[in-house]
């Protein structure tokens, strides 16, 4: 699916209740997990010790941090939509967020989205995006919820 491009609140609002698209698949490899562990100081063995995880983990592998999966939202979102004519974009909140399953190292993930709601708050475009982070080949999403963004149009 090609990237959706919107230039105004009215163009964005036309998609309310509709699917917006899906990102490309992204590989979650051990290097990405290790870099996230270093950035967040979360070096729990289930994420960074492949030998121990192979023996002791129910996944028989290391897994991505849940917050690593969450942190991919801006990157994956930018593959789905391009919003022009804005001064800035602000993350406003997360609702109904649930981690559904682990992302095993070597898996690929993508985000699928739907415009849950949109409103105009005195010139600020508030969007509520239903999202799911899917794991390739799995039925259950790794993460799902509603992300709320504020777009400040020029």
TrEMBL record:
Spell out where the chain crosses the membrane: none
According to the entry, every stretch annotated as the MaoC-like domain falls at 14-127
One Pfam family linked to the record: MaoC_dehydratas
Under the heading CDD domains, the entry gives: NodN (cd03450)
Extract the InterPro entries matched here. HotDog_dom_sf, MaoC-like_dom, NodN-like
Q: What is this protein called?
A: MaoC-like protein
| Naturally occurring in which organism (per UniProt) | Hoylesella buccalis ATCC 35310
Q: What gene name is given for the protein in this entry?
A: maoC
